[in-house]
Amino acid sequence: VGEFDFIRWIRTTTPSAAEVLVGPGDDCAVLAAPARPLLVTTDVLTEGVDFLVRECGAFAVGRKAMAVNLSDLAAMAGTPVGAVVGVVFPRAHPIDPQELHAGLRDVADAFHCPIVGGDTNSWAGELVVSVTVFGTLKPGRQPVRRTGARPGDRLFVTGPCGGSILGRHLHPTPRLREADALAEFVHLNAMIDVSDGLSQDVSHLLAESGCGAVLTAERIPIHPDAVTLAARTGRPPLDHALGDGEDFELVFAVSEADAAKLRGGSPVPVFEIGRCVADRGLWLETGGDRRPFTPTGWSHAIG
Amino acid sequence: VGEFDFIRWIRTTTPSAAEVLVGPGDDCAVLAAPARPLLVTTDVLTEGVDFLVRECGAFAVGRKAMAVNLSDLAAMAGTPVGAVVGVVFPRAHPIDPQELHAGLRDVADAFHCPIVGGDTNSWAGELVVSVTVFGTLKPGRQPVRRTGARPGDRLFVTGPCGGSILGRHLHPTPRLREADALAEFVHLNAMIDVSDGLSQDVSHLLAESGCGAVLTAERIPIHPDAVTLAARTGRPPLDHALGDGEDFELVFAVSEADAAKLRGGSPVPVFEIGRCVADRGLWLETGGDRRPFTPTGWSHAIG
Question: CA torsion sign, A113 to B31 to A65 to A253?
């Protein structure tokens, strides 16, 4: 690769955003004061957990690292302002920083999120990519939190889930445009992105909101990848749709009145998957038969 | 350790800052709109490069990770607003997350920088701690950049340098208070923190400013650690002061008039180490004998 100042290069190749007030060599990025609240989210992606760089290439790693952070911003119906990137390169096997950068930029540019700074190092370990995205809210909007779902609310998801491990997990599309369109159209009581698994993330949302939900098995949108994977694992496709994770779709709760509005014509694809109930817990209803359902998927707990 | 939600715990134990608008479970932290420009800086610290956790302990790792980021903010005379933390824990040997958190908080609290969110994971690799700090500027202040040094300016450093590897590198004090006091007292034309090595960081500042400098050997403040280390390495203590790095002092350039003001009584300890010249390059003057000096210290370039 030769000597290469990754961050300086990122900063000098980022289209001059009016908000970026300092140059590539400074200690901090400086952005114009956002007129509205500041949203901040960060995710650290690592070799063997989030990607296998020797299989997928550095471009895909860059794309995923930026996309999963923008997905968290989408989950609060935020608008991107900028991002900083920290990369730790492995010394043992070279990774093309320009390829990684191209992947980061590919997604960042598509969602108007200038990369304004960062940090690079190398070490004896494997590739680590840390992204922090900051954003704001459109005028008059409140951040959509996980806490606002209420009994009687209807639950929707923006797309089919399951089987992302077959490759889709490397190419998520942050649902920023969908969140924006939905926030214009209805009042989003609560929202979360599907990273840990549809049933797991619904449970996170319910736990924060202090209620429960009944999911309707027949209504869960199953991705073709879930069907393909099910043929290999022998498990039902629905299991994969409910448990696989890294779909990066949005799950949200709206009032019955807003649900009717969405059924009448949503500005973006949405699938109604269930309803919130007062009793805490999660149930799966199959052909009218309701049974308690233990959420499956990824756990962030430190064991 | 048992199951432990590190980020939730951080958020719930952070003293309620008026700026923090959302709860521990949400996808983004939300802060009140800063009235002035937003400064952002990020640094990723890794095992074997920035610390040896089995020797220094998780508390020291947390302290250092927060301090080096706040040091970058100090270098622009910024004021902390908040921080997010990303941690990747090694699966192979357990690290106490509460100890790590206590270290992060120890420094963050001392400088009124609430930890408002973050991300944790575990992997087969070693410990990684990524911190992103955002800050702002006091009313009427401009960010102090690296670009503003001019021929004739005087260079100062806030403390003695060298030998930090003997242990001091794990316990840096971000010079936020010093930067603030200096920014009130004089006009800081350019500033940088000493992370890569005094001569290396002076060179970074000069490169951005488009000028050179003559450092006066007799005036470089040498830390006692540099003397101790010199006795082991056989190199002169001055070499260690100029090249060792991770001192996290601030180097800054001011006009001759402001230099006179500082000599007359600076609000914080400062050491005058040289002056800027029009010719690009770095020289070391020893007893009136001026020779070109090749900066020593850490390089971030990807080899």
Answer: negative
